[in-house]
Design brief:
Strand order of the largest sheet: 17-23-16-22-20-21
CATH architecture of the domain at 299-529: Roll
Radius of gyration: 25 Å
Number of strands: 27
Strand content: 15-25%
Structural class: alpha+beta
Oligomer: single chain
CATH topology of the domain at 299-529: Dipeptide-binding Protein, domain 3
Length: 637
């Protein structure tokens, strides 16, 4: 693309930055790092360097490696090193270019156009074109839980040429932008086989034809997934590492031991909080273990089956309230999180950049077994002759819940089972491997009570709808509304919150949702923590240690301090940088003109002052970001 063509469009990377900062206030909130953490022995090593192997530990193992059809964290974590989206989450979850090097929107934000690298190829050498993007979009909106968002707001998608993708929206919606990086592009020529469902396609499990900086080599079930450097990656000089391993541990204590012994370099999933606490007191040389808060903070919760077709007891609102009153939350936080967690009353975050959405006035459930017993009495579940169990009058049998957990039972689960038994509710707890539990919860719905390891509360809080929205009751789809909770009023409030950019208005809708949930108790939150991030300090680079955008981090910018220094070639994106400089200049001038126009309007129509002052503040922030990006690009060019 030449400069004259670039001048005909307005690259809205900057506009998007300002919009996201305005609509979804994001700060890289982080707990204070313990003062006794070991100093970084490699902080002055020159880089980047080439070579080395990064080993990532996880207690979760994926059911497949196709990011276009699932929202599972471990699937995304691995597959997004193999496949690429059009854009990725960057620092503070603002978009960064990936397969799309530039994009623009219409003034009304209803038309978005993405421009794709023309030299990007699949790992088999075939070019990546908008034919792949259109096919992937169809798969994404049909099979991926997040695709529901796009079905409700996108009027049409089209590809005017092989490298331009256009989305037309029916109305302004603030939620899709935070979810768009989950839209991964997969090769049409590999997956579009009429006789084979995409889930049964071998490429879903063995993705030899990807587009990312790393290529799939091997998946040894129960042990690891191995990736290797893509020597023909379209972004020159990247990646830096030779290989990446995702190593699967049977439980969190084993995962922690692997890290402590130097057998893994980063823990992605499954690090016991007691080990975090211990490492804080007794640091490991060359390693760092800490917690990040902010929008990556997670709320640990128990999902309850709300649908009477699948559960008798937990489908009753008063029964769920009794359960919530029966749990000893202080003991859970003490024994499960070793004091690191904080009490959570709702799925909405109490801390970090999205804390504005949390309603402190919604109904809270603290430990009150007397109240729990009162509610159970009201329901007619009376004690047996021995005062051990409550009896179901319809069956004459003890009231019993089907509880599910992983291969190991957490202290939290043990406490909750004990608490429920104290008020006469029996829990038949079954342990499942990761894949088996997913089938039980999201396909068979054969449970009453399920330990949800942690609910992400961002990037935008609209994401929480996926856990409890009626549209997300998608049988067989992981991490969707497996509790089959449905409240049309809540659905409408979520919809309204996504259709406005006014933060106070959005806050009002979310606060009302929490008031409803406070009465209905569709889930029971227990505690909130940051994301654990034990990592090896011998790895450096952008995003490391993957606390920011962990799932979306392509790892291509991470390097090893013992690697080889090489003189890099002139980046092939220089022409793209020149294009961006031109459009940034135009953007800065355009924003300045808008501020001047608004100043004139303010002097003639004072009644518009509150709205326009806020708009001016947005424009000034956008100019500041534009200027910063401009000089940053100037320097890199």
């Amino acid at each position: 693309m030449n400069t004259s063509i670039a001048k005909k469009t307005t690259l809205t990377l900057v506009l998007l930055l300002s919009l996201l900062i305005t609509l979804v206030p994001i700060v890289n909130a982080q707990e204070e790092w313990p003062a006794n953490q070991p100093p970084d022995p490699w902080k002055d090593v020159e880089g980047p360097r080439y070579g080395g192997v990064l080993r990532i530990g996880s207690i979760q193992e994926p059911i497949h490696l196709n990011p276009a059809i699932v929202a599972s964290g471990i699937v995304v974590l691995i597959s997004n090193k193999i496949y690429e989206p059009l854009v990725r989450y960057g620092i503070d979850d603002v978009w960064e270019p990936e397969l799309a090097y530039a994009w623009e929107s219409s003034d009304d934000l209803l038309t978005w156009t993405f421009h794709i690298y023309e030299n990007a190829t699949w790992h088999d050498g075939k070019p990546i074109t908008t034919e792949d993007v259109l096919y992937s979009y169809d798969v994404f909106t049909e099979r991926h839980p997040t695709g529901v968002i796009f079905n409700s707001v996108v009027e049409s998608v089209e590809a005017p040429d092989d490298y331009t993708f256009v989305m037309q929206f029916t109305h302004v919606d603030v939620s899709w932008r935070s979810m768009f990086p989950l839209f991964s592009i997969i090769p049409k020529h590999v997956f579009d086989i009429s006789s084979v469902d995409i889930l049964d396609n071998d490429a879903t499990h063995h993705p030899y034809v990807g587009s990312g900086a790393y290529k799939f080599v091997e998946w040894k079930t129960g042990e690891y997934v191995k990736l290797t450097r893509n020597e023909n990656y379209y972004q020159k000089d990247l990646p830096y590492l030779n290989e990446v391993y995702f190593i699967f541990a049977p439980d969190s204590m084993t995962n922690a031991a692997l890290f402590e012994n130097g057998d893994v370099d980063f823990i992605a999933y499954g690090c016991p909080l007691q080990e975090i606490a211990r490492w804080r007191e007794n640091p490991i040389a060359g390693q760092y273990s800490g917690l990040y808060a902010g929008i990556k903070g997670m709320v640990n919760s128990f999902m309850l089956m709300n649908d009477p077709d699948y559960a008798k007891y937990t489908s009753q609102q008063k029964f769920r309230q009794a359960m919530a009153y029966s749990w000893d939350y202080d003991r859970i936080i003490r024994d499960e999180t070793f004091g690191i967690g904080i009490r959570a009353y709702t799925l909405f975050p109490m801390f970090g950049s999205n804390a504005w959405s949390y309603n402190p006035n919604a109904k809270h459930y603290d430990y009150n077994p007397d109240k729990a017993n009162e509610l159970l009495d009201d329901l007619g579940y009376n004690w047996d002759a021995d005062n051990k169990w409550r009896i179901d009058p319809d069956t004459g049998e003890p009231v019993a819940l089907r509880g599910t957990t992983g291969t190991t039972t957490s202290a939290e689960t043990e406490i909750i089972v004990e608490n429920l038994e104290d008020v006469g509710i029996k829990v038949n707890l079954k342990q499942y491997t990761g894949q088996a539990s997913i089938s039980v919860i999201f396909n068979d719905y054969n449970y009453d009570l399920y330990t949800w390891g942690g609910c992400f509360t961002g990037p935008d809080v609209s994401h929480i709808e996926e856990y409890l929205g009626t549209a997300y009751m998608m049988k067989g789809s992981m991490w969707a509304n497996g509790g089959r909770y449905s409240n049309l009023e809540v659905d409408e409030l979520f919809k309204k919150a996504k259709m406005t950019s006014d933060l106070e208005e959005r806050k009002g809708y979310y606060w009302e949702i929490q008031e409803i949930w406070g009465e209905e108790v569709p889930w029971i939150p227990t505690y909130a923590t940051g994301r654990e991030s034990p990592h090896n300090q011998a790895f450096k680079g952008k995003f490391w240690p993957m606390n920011v955008s962990m799932h979306q981090d392509p790892i291509k910018n991470i390097w090893w301090v013992y690697g080889e220094l090489k003189e890099t070639t002139t980046p092939q994106v220089t022409e793209d940088i020149e294009i961006r400089l031109v459009v940034l200049e135009d953007t800065i001038l355009d924003l300045s003109t808008k501020i001047s126009d608004l100043e004139t309007q303010l002097s003639t129509t004072p009644s518009t002052m509150p709205t326009n002052i806020a708009y001016v503040a947005i424009l000034i922030a956008a100019i500041a970001i534009s200027v910063s990006l401009y000089f940053g690009l100037k320097k890199s060019n």
